[in-house]
Amino acid sequence: MIEIRTSQLSNGELNRGVFATQDIAEGALIHEAPVIPYDNEEHVHIEKTIIGDYAFEYGANHSAILLGYGMLFNHSYTPNTFYELNFDNLTVDFFAHSDIKAGEELLINYNGEVDCEDPLWFNEEQEAKEAD
């Protein structure tokens, strides 16, 4: 149903994204990404590495590293995909927010809510560096 391909949207060195290999109906479960949760106090160590760029908030007291394709969904303020935290299964589950055509890139809002337009943390950091 999905595959990893080169994305024109990715700003990272790897330029990867998640793409549909077939049409996907709105509401369909697309991917269950297993997670490795850890206490928020440990994040100070992880944020010193490139892995910190891919960590998710995972509840009030934890962060998580996503496995599978979970780390490779790119951001959009008009996403076609959304995710839910599944604490029982230790996964982040990705669903189609709208109908998706084969070949389309699957995009999530990194803010967690489909319609949240708050600035992203990495854009704020970049703007601060440019102001210095």
Automatic annotation (TrEMBL):
GO molecular function: histone H3K37 methyltransferase activity
Domain SET: 1-111
SMART domains referenced in this protein's UniProt entry, alphabetically: SET (SM00317)
Domain of life (superkingdom): Bacteria
Protein name stated in the entry: SET domain-containing protein
Gene3D superfamilies membership: SET domain
